[in-house]
Amino acid sequence: MKRRFITLAVAVMATLWGGVVSAQDRKLDVVKLPDPFIPNSVSSYYVADELGFFRDEGIKAEFVGVVPTPQLVAAVMAGKVDVGGAHANRTIAGISAGAKVRAVVAQSETTRERPHMVFVTLANSPIKAPKDLLGKRLAIMAFGGCNEYTPYEYLRKHGVANPKGKLNIVTTPPGKEIDALRRGAADFAGVHIDPKDVQRLGGLRILFTDYDVWGTIGGATPLYFSDKFIKEKPDVVRRFVRVMARTNNWINANPGKAEQIHAKRAKVDPSIVNANHFAPDGVIKEESVQLWIDILDHYHDIRPGIKTAEVYTNAFNAPPGPKKKAPLKARRKEVARL
């Protein structure tokens, strides 16, 4: 009799515990996220999900599949995904076209050792100087964005006044740019890999990186929500920003582990995965946004007069440090204006 009572009690407790877990799951706020378009670059979403950072903030990450980078702004506006990203210039171009989105947290950014993009050619290529690129075939994964504008700005920096239209662009699936180069379909290629991997792959030579063009400020890839989402769910946005800030710092401290997590989740070879440098605490730098406004304005690819305040806000971020109270009050006022 005693044994039956204990068994029944255990069963009841298990049922109740299961009910508690289900209730907790139901309380999680769902945020729809795209799977990574570039398979060999570490996804902070995957890392945050694997480490339980989303759950810690009461968020459930719902992955909806790959959304091509040029379609992300439209996908956010349509509600297919809640969060968009990619290079800052795509966000700016979307806003210029009328999209009501706002960047709220920084992601990867450039350092000398870990640039956002690397442009390579074959080791025996006759390309030696910037002017040698004129008229050559460039393999990139998509028009626009960092893929297209980085080489334009490299050429402009080296005296080519109007570089747009002076390269023959060949688009390839993400991660296949070097394949196009090796089979003779392109003369140079733009890739999102670690410069060390260029040496490992063999037979290649680095021409330049985005660091050579802009230093550390050109590689910003902030994440954005629609203005509608921000207005309706500001607390979810704030918690999401905390997750990303925490994840950024973790990846910077553990790049090898981040690459392993991404490789497992993306089902790719770990040896091809690259962990970029991520913006400490997720703080968006105004100079990075202004840089891309100026570039797109120079090429007449956006409407004139766009201001950085239209593109991003750090109002949802709470960077560490002793001076928290005054900035928080200012951020609350900014959020109220959104």
TrEMBL record:
<dbReference type="InterPro" id="IPR015168">
    <property type="entry name" value="SsuA/THI5"/>
</dbReference>
<feature type="domain" description="SsuA/THI5-like">
    <location>
        <begin position="43"/>
        <end position="258"/>
    </location>
</feature>
<protein>
    <submittedName>
        <fullName>ABC transporter substrate-binding protein</fullName>
    </submittedName>
</protein>
<feature type="signal peptide">
    <location>
        <begin position="1"/>
        <end position="23"/>
    </location>
</feature>
<feature type="region of interest" description="Disordered">
    <location>
        <begin position="318"/>
        <end position="338"/>
    </location>
</feature>
<feature type="compositionally biased region" description="Basic residues">
    <location>
        <begin position="322"/>
        <end position="332"/>
    </location>
</feature>
<keyword id="KW-0732">Signal</keyword>
<dbReference type="Pfam" id="PF09084">
    <property type="entry name" value="NMT1"/>
</dbReference>
